[in-house]
Structure formats: structure tokens, C-alpha cells
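Researcher: We're teaching a course module on how sequence relates to structure. For the next exercise, students receive a sequence and then see the predicted structure as C-alpha cells, so they can try to spot secondary structure elements on their own. Here is the exercise chain.
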Amino acid sequence: MELLKQQATTKGPADWFTGDVWMDVIYAGEEPSRMRATLVRFAPGARTKWHRHVLGQTLHVVSGIALIGTRDGTVIETHPGETVTCPAGEEHWHGAAPDRFMEHIAMFEGRGDSTPEMEWLELVTDDQYNGPRINTR
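Model: And here is the predicted structure for the students to work with:
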């Protein structure tokens, strides 16, 4: 057993996000583990770029309202305590509702080789972000 040293909060890079985002790495596994877990805090309206994960991603909403979008135009509105999985290779984005801060825990894995864990794509347009929502409540 090992108590991990807490890393400093970092600002989300502008080439990954629209708006203000902060990240706290919870766990970045070392071989043989490939697990990654990060607490991500989004200011109202902030969101990721379109992206995909080589082995998929799981998002667990901690606070606020999360919006998660897919290429077919679906935008799922999720709430604290809810968890969404994105399959391997699925292009998606996630962020905060326009009027609320949001925190989620992002969990994903890499292959354990030199393959990137994720691929960042283009910005999410305002029309995509403001698309019709499916409310989970």
C-alpha cells in the first residue's frame, strides 16, 4: 500500500478546452497499471474540444450539471452521482452547463505502449454545445 503525494492543481490547456478548466490528477498509473483518474473542474460554459479515447472513458459527475455530447447531435445533461461511459474511439465532448460550475472525475486507460491515450480534435461549436439536451432526471 502507498499513500500517493497529491499533485498541484493545473490549469487546463487552451488547446484542449474552451473556457476555464482546472485539473487535479487523482491517479496516473505506472506499469503494469494503465489507469488514469482526474478531477476536472469546469467554469460555467467551459468544455473540452471534441476528442476520443483509445480504450474509452468514464465520467462521474461530482457537482453541478455536466453536458456530454456525441457526433450524432445528442447532448446528455447529467447530475451529481451519475456516471456516463464513452466507448473506445467514440468522438465526444463534455463540459459545464452555461450557468453552473461542474466537477467530474474522468477515468480512462492507455494501451500500455506508445499509442496516445486520447486524440484531441476540433473545437465544439456554440451550436453543438447548445444543441437539444436529453435530461437524465
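Model: If you want an answer key for the exercise: The radius of gyration is 15 Å. The chain is about 5% helix and 45% strand.
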